[in-house]
Amino acid sequence: xxxxxxxxxxxxxxxxxxxxxxxxxxxxxxxxxxxxxxxxxxxxxxxxxxxxxxxxxxxxxxxxxxxxxxxxxxxxxxxxxxxxxxxxxxxxxxxxxxxxxxxxxxxxxxxxxxxxxxxxxxxxxxxxxxxxxxxxxxxxxxxxxxxxxxxxxxxxxxxxxxxxxxxxxxxxxxxxxxxxxxxxxxxxxxxxxxxxxxxxxxxxxxxxxxxxx
Amino acid sequence: xxxxxxxxxxxxxxxxxxxxxxxxxxxxxxxxxxxxxxxxxxxxxxxxxxxxxxxxxxxxxxxxxxxxxxxxxxxxxxxxxxxxxxxxxxxxxxxxxxxxxxxxxxxxxxxxxxxxxxxxxxxxxxxxxxxxxxxxxxxxxxxxxxxxxxxxxxxxxxxxxxxxxxxxxxxxxxxxxxxxxxxxxxxxxxxxxxxxxxxxxxxxxxxxxxxxxxxxxxxxx
Lengths: 213, 221
Description:
The complex is a heterodimer.
Chain A: H1 5-45, H2 54-81, H3 84-89, H4 91-102, E1 106-110, H5 117-133, H6 137-141, H7 144-153, E2 161-168, E3 171-177, H8 184-191, E4 197-202, E5 205-211
Parallel strand pairs in A: 1-2
Antiparallel strand pairs in A: 2-3, 3-5, 4-5
Chain B: E1 2-6, H1 10-22, E2 26-31, H2 34-40, E3 48-52, H3 61-72, E4 77-82, H4 87-96, E5 101-105, H5 112-123, E6 127-129, H6 131-138, H7 154-164, H8 169-176, H9 180-193, H10 202-217
Parallel strand pairs in B: 1-2, 1-3, 3-4, 4-5, 5-6
Helix pairs in contact in B: 2-3, 6-10, 7-9, 7-10, 8-9
C-alpha cells in the first residue's frame, strides 16, 4: 500500500525538521560548550598562585573532559537526526564517511546530483541500516578459524557491499548489492513513507526508489 | 605569533580571542565570515589564519576562504577548527595544501599549550590533523595485513617520511640526492605495499600513505 500525496509531503517535512534540529544543535548547545572549553583554557592559564594546587587542576581536567564527552554525545545525536555532511556535501561524501566510520568493506558509486533533504536523508539511513546489519562486530566474536574465512571473503573480488545511487525520472534510485535480502524491509521502511519502494532485484540485491522533492 | 580569526559563532569567536591572547598571541584580525577576513588580510600580515569550516560564504566558507588566502599569501598557515572531524573535509583541506595546514576539533584546542603547539607546528610547515580522525581514516578493513609500514624498505620509509612532511616529489628528490624518476618509483612502490590501488586519485593515495605513516609513528596498531 502506498501512502497518499499528503502523507508523503508530511514525511518529507519531517526530514526537513530533523535537519533543522541538527542545525540548532550545532549553532546552539554545541557552540556554547565549545566556547566554554576555550574559556576553561583561559581560566587555567590565568590562575595566579594555583600552579601548585593539584586538586584545582584535577577539577579543571574533569571539567574539560566532561565538556568533550558532552560534545561527542551531541555529535552522535546530531548524526542520528541528520548527518551534517549530507546537507553540506551530498549523498556521495556522506556515504563514504559512513563506510569509513563503520569499517565496512563497501564500494560507493554515487552520481553527483542533489535530490532534496527527504530523499537523501531516507536513502542515507536505508544504507546505514544495511551496513549496521553487516557490522563486523559479528566477525569479532567469531573464532580464529572463522576469521580466516572472513579474510578471504573480504579480499577484492569477494562479496563486498556495493552502494550505487542514480537519479532517474525524478526518483533517487539506490541499488545495494552483496547485502542480506532480509534488509529489504529496513530499506522499505525508509522509502515507503515518501511514496517510494524497495524490491529484491537479485539474490543479494535490493533496488529502492525515493521520490525527489 | 600574529593570528587572524574567522568564525561566525560569536561565543566561540570571543572565547578563541581570549584564549589566543592568554597564550600571548596577537590577534590581528577577527571577523564573522571568510570574505571580510580575506579583505582585512590584504593589508595586515598574519602568521596563521584560524578558520571555521561551516561559515559564510555558505555552506563551507572556510574552504573557499582558505583557497583564497593560500593563493594570496602562500606562507600563511591555515588552521581549520570545526565541530565535526570528517575525512571528506580533510581530503578537501589537503587539496588546498599539504604544508602549513591543520584541521582540529573546536573543543580540542581548549588549552594554551595545545593551541600554541598546534599553531607553532603549522607555522613550522607541518600538517596537524585531529588524531582521532587520522586514526579513523587509516583503519583498513580487517582483512588487510597489519604493520604495512614495516613492509617498506628503508629508502621507501625515508620517502614516505618526507611525504608526510608535506614535500613534493621534486623536494624529496633534492633532499635524498636522487632523481625525480627514482622518487616516483619509490612512491609507486609505497602505494602498492600499503594497498592503495589505482582506483583512487594520486593525491588521495598520497594523503592515505601519509596518514598510514603518521599513525604508525603514533604507535597505533
